[in-house]
Amino acid sequence: MSNSTQPTRRPAINRRKFLYATTAMVGGLGAVMATWPLLDQMNPDARVRAAADTVGVDLADLRPGGLRKVLWYGYPIFVVRRTAAMLEAMRDRAFVAQLVDPDSQARQQPSYAKNWHRSIKPAFAVLAGVCTACGTLPTYQAEASDLGMAGGYVCPFCASHYDPAGRAYSGISRYNLPVPPHDYVARFEIVLGMNASDDNFSLASVERI
After folding, report:
1. What is the domain range of residue 137?
2. Which of 34, 95, 98, 139 is the most exposed place for a label (fewest CB within 10 A)?
């Protein structure tokens, strides 16, 4: 009859198996640690995502007639400081009569840019540089275009013309150039991706881009 008070003997752990198991565990941990930076990069935190959503543009040294190009969300953004001649020509009644969408009825801009200059400040234009007829990058012209307009944009592929406010007036384009969401954080500094009002506007909401 066996003595039930004696403790049960457990089998001894093989030293070689223990070393193998320890090595495998350390190796697996090393692989996880090596992979973590890649996983972390693929899943950036909120601060990184927020920084990618907005882009600041300094306008202090932008002279009248000057153009600044900025890439935002894969779109070329044109920021132009319009000249007095541009602003005057944009309000000429005979010219306005030629515009495809003079009152910006199509959803191509946020509500705070639904005006004759299609911007927050008349002096500065902020437009997505994508022809709304064929998707080609328009050419900016600071001087009079071939049709006599004091500056603007011309598509080199389909010959669609847009005035300094991005309004279509000649060619096959039926839509104005989109105005991206933006706001001023200083007198001469804008932030792309930040709306100037409670209008929840984005380029994804435009009718044509």
Report:
1. 54-205
2. 34
